[in-house]
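Complex 338.
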Amino acid sequence: KKLGWAIVGLGKFATEQIMPNFKDCQHSKLVALVSGSPDKAKKLAREYGIEEKNLYNYQNFDTIRDNPAVDIVYIILPNALHAEYTVRAAQAGKHVLCEKPMATSEEDCQKMIDASKKAGKKLMIAYRCQYEPFNLNAIERIKKGELGKLKVITADHGRPVKPTEDKADTWRVVKKLAGGGSLMDIGIYSLNATRYLTGEEPVEITAQEHSDKSDPRFKEVEDTIVFTLRFPSGVLATCTSSYSYQEVKRGRAFGDKGWLDLDPLSDYNKHTMKIGTEEGKQEPQLKEGNQFAAEVDHMSECVMQNKTPRTPGEEGQRDVRYIMAIYEAAKKGKAVKV
Ligand code: NAD
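Predicted structure with nicotinamide-adenine-dinucleotide bound:
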């Protein structure tokens, strides 16, 4: 059985990554689109065999309530719009998969959780790395103790943001729409990885930020931010996030018996894993899989089997809480307890 999905926001990520990968889904099919641009929606509908009666705009979106073909709504809008559209979708009686970061404040995350609960519908946050085979394998190896006692995690996520060249980057440097800079957008991958690799929640956070305010890109949002997390077991994590260094998306876990490298950790494909122990280095050859189809199908399966998603709203809310604590620690120049 395949559940019907509606995509809200037909931007770069939706059209280049998500929509094409529905072809590999076993339990999910694209049935509706929501867009502010009727021409774009019609063109994509023709391409994907979506009926024109299943095209919505942001004004009539709430009438999706009357469309039984749509089970799940996938929100792929600028960060600050996630809350409004998740709440509206839940009120229209739909389950929601929402892109990361879940929202731009912890309060908005709570509103999204509450609206889904009230409607009796599921809410999942699109942490695709938690459905990606290399990351899942790393989690298993660490859990099994292959690295011995875990001591440190390091993770780096950065790329040059290009608002004048890439339309998808224009809202990313506007605080009202993005909520923040590199940390909200890509540093969140490092943050989330420290949590799923340790299986723990941080208790203390420190941070330092540097943004060149004469660079028009960083008038409103941060460029580079370095943060550390202390976990209850004693694991320490140190992460970097930047909108100005060359593209990096990697993570490394250090244990007393070995280290494990994912470089990239969070790309769309071409992941690699390297492991170093006393016996030497190895590079396990894992099957890449389709993380997008796995993530989307996971949500459909949770709806069909009435299960809680692996990455529910509460998971997204925790990251937003830690992101706010990172900003606070950077601003105050002091460690923040969480
Ligand atoms: P994008 O700008 O290409 O897409 C956003 C879409 O929202 C556009 O089609 C735009 O027209 C529409 N939109 C509706 N109302 C808008 C408004 N008021 N202002 C601006 N745009 C508006 O951006 P994107 O890169 O596709 O990112 C969309 C979301 O997906 C973000 O939350 C981002 O964090 C997330 N994302 C996730 C991944 C991932 O790997 N999981 C990758 C890229 C983006």
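Residues 9-14, 36, 76-79, 81, 99-100, 126, 128, 168, 171, 177, 185 surround nicotinamide-adenine-dinucleotide (CB under 6 Å).
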